[in-house]
Specification:
It is a single chain. The protein has a seven-stranded mixed sheet, covered by helices on one side. The protein has a two-stranded antiparallel ribbon with strand order 1-3. Helix 1 packs antiparallel against helix 4. Strand 6 and strand 7 form a beta hairpin. The chain is of the alpha+beta class. The chain is built from five helices and nine strands; from the N terminus they run αβααββαββαββββ. The two termini are 32 Å apart. The protein has a single domain, classed as Histidine kinase-like ATPase, C-terminal domain (Heat Shock Protein 90), CATH 3.30.565.10.
Length: 202
């Protein structure tokens, strides 16, 4: 269950204050996929497309938790959709690549998608895609804080109702975090629904 998954992630996360160190993101992704198997194995296939990456200065424990929340939210969205379309197989794609001085992580699923009217609220505490259950509602808010505020990166969410959701994460290879835990370089989070032309940023 989800509580067991969270316990496993706490176990692999380093205790103590946040520290940014050069880490292997692809190995972190593989580890998180293994840890979350019980969340997605009944509803989806996970497809990894992991490119060659440099080591990235990051807090590995925080990134484990970000990836965990994204995978669990995707699995729930696929489970919600499969209750209406049981013959359709679910998938979660996780891709990594280097883009200039940044690395990019894409987490995509073919779940139920996020309604256009709800999309601007996905970074609010206790709100999530799919069924919008409180149990996973803090996931994207936590991801926004970890990626944008703590690592000086960017996070965007694109979603189409009935087709799925893609979360795009960009992290600088070398930390842009400023003195005192702030960030430099304009970290941002953005939202886009492919149903209609509405887009917003926070």
């Amino acid at each position: 269950n989800v509580s067991e998954i969270l316990g496993s992630v706490r176990h692999v996360s380093r205790p103590g204050p946040s520290r940014l160190q050069p880490e292997d993101l692809n190995e972190s992704i593989r580890a998180t996929v293994r840890i979350t198997t019980c969340a997605w194995k009944e509803v989806a296939e996970i497809r990894l497309r992991l490119g060659t990456l440099p080591r990235v200065e990051c807090d590995l424990g925080e990134l484990h938790q970000v990836l965990l929340n994204l995978l669990v939210n995707s699995a729930r969205a696929i489970g919600e959709k499969s209750s209406c379309y049981p013959s359709r197989s679910g998938f979660i794609d996780v891709e990594t690549s280097q883009v200039g001085e940044e690395v990019e992580i894409l987490v995509s699923d073919n779940g139920c998608g996020i309604p256009e009217g709800q999309l601007p609220r996905v970074f609010d505490p206790f709100v999530s895609g799919g069924t919008f259950k409180e149990s996973s509602g803090q996931g994207l808010r936590m991801a926004q804080a970890a990626i944008c505020d703590h690592h000086g990166g960017s996070l965007s969410v694109e979603s189409t109702v009935g087709e799925g959701t893609t979360v795009r994460i960009r992290l600088p290879v070398r930390s842009r975090r400023g003195v005192g835990g702030g960030s430099l370089g304009g970290p941002s989070a953005s939202l886009q629904s492919t149903m209609g032309s509405t887009s917003s940023s926070v």
